[in-house]
Amino acid sequence: MDADAEIDHEAITPVYAQLVAILRARIERGDWAEGRRIMSGPQLEQAYGLSRDTVRKALRVLIDEGVLTAVPGRGTFVAPADGAEPSRPDGTGESAE
Fold first, then answer.
1. Rounded to the nearest 10 degrees, how much is the dihedral formed by the CA atoms of 45, 46, 50, 53?
2. Given a cut of 80, is residue 2 above it in pLDDT?
3. 24, 62 Cβ separation under 8 angstroms
4. Model pTM above 0.90
5. Cα separation of 64 and 93, whole Å?
């Protein structure tokens, strides 16, 4: 799916799966680099006109696939290609938890 695609509520593809494809395309396009925080849940809800549950389901799929990683209290980040946890913003390389 195109990174600039819009959600089609009439499509046979579930809405959460469309969001998964859009977010994956945006990551592949470089909108968010490895280790960088993506849009928050509420921002995604507003940007795509979706419910909180739909956004959470899409994020959970990408987290389970290792594309994203969630850091409690900090947000959801693009997972590094090597599967390591995101670094702290101060560059220490320690886990952000």
1. 30
2. no
3. yes
4. no
5. 23
Q: Of 83, 47, 51, which is closest to residue 67 (Cα–Cα)?
A: 83
**Measuring CA to CA, which residue among 22, 27, 23, 29 is closest to residue 8?**
22
Q: What is the pLDDT of residues 12-31, one digit of tens each?
A: 999 999 999 999 999 999 99
Q: What distance in Å separates the CA atoms of residue 25 and residue 91, rounded to the nearest whole number? A: 27
Distance from C-alpha of 71 to C-alpha of 85, rounded to nearest angstrom: 9
Domains, the chain, with CATH or none: 15-78 (1.10.10.10)
- Residues in the chain, overall count: 97
